[in-house]
Design a protein that fits this description.
By secondary structure, this protein is mainly α. Helix content is 75%, strand content 0%. Helix 1 runs parallel beside helix 4 and helix 5 runs antiparallel to helix 6. The protein is globular and about 55 Å long. The N and C termini lie far apart (40 Å). This is Tryptophan-rich sensory protein. Keywords: Membrane, Transmembrane, Transmembrane helix.
Length: 249
Amino acid sequence: MRLLVLLCALAMPLVAWFSQRGAFGPDNGTLSDRYPTLLVAAGYAFAIWGLIFAWDLAFALWQARSRAGASAALTRTRVLAATGFALTAAWMPVFSQQWFALSLLVIVAALASIAAAAVVLSRDPVPLPGQRLWAWFPLSMHAGWLSLAVWLNAAQVAVAYRLLPTDRMLGWSLALYAGAAFLLLALNARMRGNLGYVLAALWGLAGVYVKQSQSSLPGADTAAWVALALAALLIAQSVWLRARATAPA
């Protein structure tokens, strides 16, 4: 399983490299511009994938050491991480092929796996030396970004297949924002105010604010402020969760 985690971690940046060169079809930026929504983030925000891939690879190398095998939490995490990494890699060619419904299913499954791994590590009572830096933090960041990305993907499915009005997107977009808020706050609570998770989500929400504040789509200004309000709510919850965790019993 240790080797499988490493191979799956290596697959993500490798597939991303080919994807950005159009090996599987139009890249993510091209498709995002082709199907604009009120939830998409500014292009620069997606650069976080570079950090996530690098840190996930560092996790894969760290967990491969024999000493890291003693943790029961880490043992459970390996299967979840390998599954999440494989699904993350698979999502890129699937999205480029414009199989949008399938891409949504893949990214939801990737989130479920990575978020479960992050929850396990967040609640580990006796972490190994280095576990928080090399396992908890990278998997938490991955989960935080995916927790927002699934809703961006859902919006693009709605626009690409014209499942919902594309000239009046604000109403159903607000429903997706509400879903994103519930998911982010629920998972953050399960992880007890997870710093890596929150930072990745905040980065994404800031990117959404920048993109929507510059967009000419009807309702974009409202969407931008909703993203900013959600970021503020996530920060407030995290401060409260951390304060409660450190308060004397």
